[in-house]
Amino acid sequence: MTLYPHLLAPLDLGHVVLPNRVLMGSMHTNLEETRDWNRVAEFYATRARGGVALMVTGGMAPNREGGVFPGAAGLFTPQDIANHRIVTDRTHAAGGRIAMQILHAGRYAYGPECVSASAIKSPISPFAPKELDEAGIEKQIADIATAAARAREAGYDGVEVMGSEGYFLNQFLVTHTNKRTDRWGGPYENRMRLPVEVVKRVRAAVGADFIVIYRISLIDLIPDGSTFDEVVTLAKAIEAAGASILNTGIGWHEARVPTIATSVPRAAFAWVTKKLMGQVAIPIITSNRINTPEVAEDVLAEGCADMVSMARPFLADPDFVRKAAEGRGAEIAPCIACNQACLDHTFSGKISTCLVNPQACHETELRYEPTTSPKRIAVVGAGPAGLSAALTAAGRGHSVTLFDRATEIGGQLNMAKVIPGKEEFHGLVGWFATMVAKAGIEMRLGQEAGVDDLRGFDAVIVATGVAPRDPGIPGQDGPNVVSYIDVLRGNAPVGKTVAIVGAGGIGFDVAEFLAEAHHPTTDPDLWRREWGVADPATRRGGLAPEGPNPEAPARVVTLLQRKPEKPGRKLGKTTGWIHRATLQMKGVKMIGGANYERIDAAGLHVSFGPARETPQLIAAETVVLCAGQEPARGLADRLAAAGIAAHVIGGADVAAELDAKRAIDQGARLAATL
Ligand code: NAP
Ligand code: SF4
């Protein structure tokens, strides 16, 4: 008897039976842009071997004007089709199925040729689109249908027509972006004409025995978005036009409500998909922040959908479905929804990967081969770098001993997990604990490893992490000054007014920790209120009329940095705005360009500018130091003095710009070579 009967039930689509209810949602990884088709094929084949029922590729442009950026990948030439054949053949040989997403970006296309329903620029693009005329619209429909036919020729099992997230088809649906007065604008039956026509033409182009998924925007989260009645009307028309499956889209890219970040509650939008259940006969897929088999099973058991879409969880662990089916759910590497190595990379033009799985998108290059000469390896430090090195080395057949002076593993991850909105770190630490036990790693916790403990090992890895930087502010030894470590470990009382020195990742985290009275991420009703999410059945676009309605802050917090720029500029590309918005909602004052003059019982005294002008008191009962970190290299230095060679990784190697992504990657890459 399986633990996940709904998740692992087959789904009959008529001409094909999917083996389970899991779809790998579309992700743009930038892999196609490498033009290394063996690498692209291996990425998908690895996930096919892991048992996912159906995968959707990253978005492929149907034409030049619709590409997300100039030169975006698509099926334009016979060579393109042959390249994609490599991917589909490899996927099929691995026992999988794959659909190609056709993504027309409309006004989100990052280029001067972009087109849309009306010539209205989006707030997230510098390019105003050209308003299409009748012939222009016909060309877009024909190009999308041609892309679908070519996908079939390239061996795909289906296509997904991207109709959500504020892209081209979505732009025709709502008056926010469609001001037309012809047969493509005005009343809803006109505004929905384009997506319906597209699906009809796609179906005609591909024949009956081909999967056509339509990704429908269920809650736009923008002003003048669709009502739920309109969504239902569209869903029925899309079904009649020939779609095989409806996939869920949540929120336009320009929406100011987070939809997939780690601070979004798990399965936060499954209730919206549930509203569509029973309205159409074709299967409906739900998505967003579903990252464990338990969450997925619950969503299906509660009748929210027929199938679940997970995307990033398949970067974290390609074997998600196989492990769930084998009752090894605890061994699934959890996607913590951080976006740090996937979306932040995509939007910086880098190849996506995963913070918890550095092999993601590097399948052909980062290989963990079984060792032919097993060694005894000591790893000192059970933070992310040390854990990653220890697990990878043990997985390759080495005998590993892991030391940490703390009595629990996790290092700095244990501080991250107490931050509101970072609860997923609990799962990551739990996963490391499961895997360390399974790998048979000898644990020496609660033990400060000294030089003598490390003699006799074939290799020593030092992952001793970081120590807080001393900012040297006069008065910092006072009783009202504490470090972030004491605050996050609950070792220091914190007053009702707080000044935070340092606005890096940890300064922001501490500000959220101190300003939030509750954890909205684990309280979906509170989270919806905080961000102003309403039922799209009663509020157009699903936006509450009163807007965000945050709880009162738990403390009055001021966050400071010395750099004369807006604090938070260096936070994650796709998540920084959420942290800044959260703090703004909590009334946190963010100050750049401060000189720290001194701390006394009244608070933090600062001045501004090179001439140290405009002295100001930041009144605070407590001052928290979050001034960055230095490598903790004591052990590495002692080993060097004793003539014992050691590999130094993680924060002990370089503390600047350290995060768990770099630490885990460095640990894995080192251990892959030992
Ligand atoms: P950080 O990001 O390097 O920030 C250190 C802060 O301290 C900066 O605001 C810096 O700004 C200030 N500072 C530096 N030297 C100082 C000095 N001598 N006196 C006073 N202030 C000083 O370090 P962190 O916040 O400790 O974070 C450590 C690492 O963890 C970072 O690399 C970060 O990316 C990562 N992290 C990431 C996240 C995330 O959400 N992704 C969350 C937490 C931590 P000024 O120099 O302008 O004052
Ligand atoms: Fe998930 Fe973070 Fe990995 Fe992206 S980088 S897949 S969000 S864990």
Describe the structure.
With 674 residues, the chain is an alpha/beta fold. It has 3 domains: 11-333, TIM Barrel (Alpha-Beta Barrel), CATH 3.20.20; 376-459 and 631-673, NAD(P)-binding Rossmann-like Domain (Rossmann fold, 3-Layer(aba) Sandwich); 470-517 and 552-627, FAD/NAD(P)-binding domain (3-Layer(bba) Sandwich), CATH 3.50.50.60. Helix content is 30%, strand content 18%. The chain is built from 21 helices and 27 strands. The strands form 7 sheets. The chain has an 8-stranded parallel β-barrel with strand order 3-4-5-8-9-10-11-12, surrounded by 7 helices. A 5-stranded parallel β-sheet has the order 15-14-13-16-27, with helices on one face. Helix 19 links the parallel strand 20 (556-560) and strand 21 (589-591). Helix 1 runs parallel beside helix 2. The longest helix has 20 residues, at 134-153. It is globular, with a radius of gyration of 26 Å. The two termini are 41 Å apart. The model has no long low-confidence stretch (mean pLDDT 96). Iron/sulfur cluster binds at residues 312, 315-316, 335-342, 354-356.
